[in-house]
Amino acid sequence: MPGLLEVNHLSISFFTPRGEVEAVRDVSFSLNAGEVLAVVGESGCGKSVLCKGIMKLLPPIARIKSGSICINGTDITGYGERDMQRLRGKLFSMVFQDPMSVLNPTMTIGAQIGEAVKVHQPRIAKKELTEKVIGFMELVGIDKPEERMKMYPHQFSGGMRQRSVMATALAGNPKILFADEPTTALDVTIQAQILDLLRDVQKKLGTATVFVSHDLGVVARVADRVAVMYAGKIVETGTVEEVYYDPRHPYTWGLMRALPAFSKGQDYLYAIPGMLPTLIDPPKGDAFACRNEYALAIDYREEPPLFPITDTHYAATWLLDKRAPRITAPVRRWKDE
Amino acid sequence: MLKWGKKLLFFLFYLFLLSVLVFVISRLSPGDPLVSYYGERAEKMDAQEREWAENRLGLRDPIPVQYVRWLENALQGDFGISYKYKMDAAEVIRGRIGNTLLLGGSGFLLIFFLALWLGVFCAWYEGRWVDRAICSLGTVTSCIPEFWLSLVFILIFAVNLKWLPSSGAYSVGKAEDVGDRLWHLILPLSIVVMTHLWYYAYMIRNKLLEEVRADYVLLAKSKGLKRSKVMVKHCLRNVMPSYFSIMAIAVPHILGGTYIVETVFSYPGIGTLSYESARYKDYNLLMLLCILSGALVLLCNLAAQAINERIDPRLKAGEFLKEPGVEDEGRGV
């Protein structure tokens, strides 16, 4: 049985005047109904592009170069704008990173949520629409929705705006929700509230969610499965337990060591050395090799395939090859915490 | 209230300043007001006759004295007589203003809606050949001076093709004929629209292109909204406040264009009148026309300011503090 969302060998490039930027390279994953998949990686590794690419929200200079996107077994890779309009909102929708800028400043919150309801029920009665909007505002935990639906975004705090964005995203009863770093622009206490809300709503409605984040600590709270992305590729994927308790890719180790909790009792916070390679002409071999303390000679010459560790756990590193030296992960096990 | 009182005070002050400037400049610039009053006869007058005539029109006094006299009368609503028409300046203007309002008003409305439509059209086809073609054409038409384009159009459509009349507001004896008036309106109106349209359409286009790249478009699209809806309901909505205020300022801009076009087409409106009165030193008429035009410019600027404050909810700063239920954050952070 095919998964709800199947992405196969998807590559997306931006054709800029300076050259082709290979933002997403050969990414495959699947998402089942009701599941939360977290996509983790540092800024600029292609997480957002992946989500927007699936919803075809990228600017015209971005193109899907190869691969396919299937929904319930139907290939939507070649869908044009008109077909996508029918899917957006109803099949999938998105919560964006910055709630300050994604709400239209000149429309009331209620109108913006109502619009999302109305797209798929054009003949809905006004009273029923208001009831629905209030319902969605209550769902995402906005107090006094009757009053607040008449307010403008600038009268809302950051957290309330992100709740409103969630209400808009959920208003079409989507099967899949893309949450693109929904907590990054918020301060820490509100981050936790929004995460809990996301998890609650997800459980209540059974919406499959692709949760994009750069914070492994956040991901542990919400996800069922994790995909770690680096330089446009998925380098490790598995269930949360597998990736957290038994990480295999040196980049995943680096991300984990970079969590403040792992530096407890030490003088400094760990950071992965170096920075992302430019994605115009990505380096040959493993893109992470030059930042990897455990890089092997082959890493600079040949790209590692995804080695299976279990049925669900894969990692793309030559360290998993039979011939590679054994290396114990430099991270304390999550369990020991 | 205090704010509007202050604005009114400034309004009056600027009008006063304008009247002083126009009064002094018009009297210091070369030209003979007697010609406009006595016509050809003024040229044959000897010095004694001239002196008598100038005394009669009060032109011999020093300029400040003349100004104070003018101001005293003006404050009582008497703007003097027009030298050329030998009747109340206000009366002369009343007879002509309808024509100008017809030309300028219909020009303004056409520009307002056509610019909106053209701007959206170009933004919709951004970067495609239609957009590029309209952009180049628009730049050319908006750069051509009105008087030159008017002459070219008269040459083509009136002289060579003989399709349209070259001057006036109506044919002789057909002042009441609406069709004939519209017939005469076509050429001047198309010049007014053509030379001003692109300026505003281009503004709409560029503002829209800024808006379609804004983040809120992503959310609107991800709801499943159609592109046309996103463009009109979301992007255009954000452009409208600035468009309204710009169009308020555009009133004097377009009116200025109308004045020039009127002159070229000898269209009997305020524009031709202003040109004549300045050219032939018809002082009282010129003063009143300048005061009226100046008041219009000031009023339009005030309107633009008011519109801007009224229409964008974000500019109503401080108001949200009065809204109940925002201070107590509760669950909804």
Helix-strand blueprint:
The complex is a heterodimer of chains A (337) and B (333).
Chain A: E1 5-16, E2 19-31, E3 36-40, H1 47-55, E4 62-71, E5 74-75, H2 81-87, E6 92-95, H3 109-120, H4 126-139, H5 145-148, H6 158-170, E7 176-180, H7 188-205, E8 208-213, H8 216-222, E9 225-230, E10 233-239, H9 240-245, H10 250-257, E11 307-308, E12 314-315
Parallel strand pairs in A: 3-8, 3-9, 6-7, 7-8
Antiparallel strand pairs in A: 1-2, 1-4, 4-5, 9-10, 10-12, 11-12
Chain B: H1 2-28, H2 33-38, H3 41-44, H4 47-56, H5 63-75, H6 89-124, H7 129-143, H8 146-160, H9 178-212, H10 215-222, H11 227-264, H12 270-279, H13 283-311
Structure commentary:
The complex is a heterodimer of chains A (337) and B (333). Chain A has ten helices and twelve strands. Chain A has helices spanning 47-55, 81-87, 109-120, 126-139, 145-148, 158-170, 188-205, 216-222, 240-245, 250-257; strands at 5-16, 19-31, 36-40, 62-71, 74-75, 92-95, 176-180, 208-213, 225-230, 233-239, 307-308, 314-315. In chain A, the strands form two sheets. Chain A has an eight-stranded mixed β-sheet, sandwiched between helices. Chain A has a four-stranded antiparallel β-sheet with strand order 2-1-4-5, covered by helices on one side. In chain A, strand 7, helix 7 (188-205) and strand 8 form a beta-alpha-beta unit. In chain A, helix 3 (109-120) packs parallel to helix 6 and helix 6 (158-170) runs parallel beside helix 7 (188-205). The relative contact order of chain B is 0.13. Chain B has helices at 2-28, 33-38, 41-44, 47-56, 63-75, 89-124, 129-143, 146-160, 178-212, 215-222, 227-264, 270-279, 283-311. Chain B has 333 residues and is mainly alpha-helical. The chains are: A alpha/beta (337), B mainly alpha (333). Chains A and B meet through helix 2, helix 3 and helix 6 of A and helix 10 and helix 11 of B.
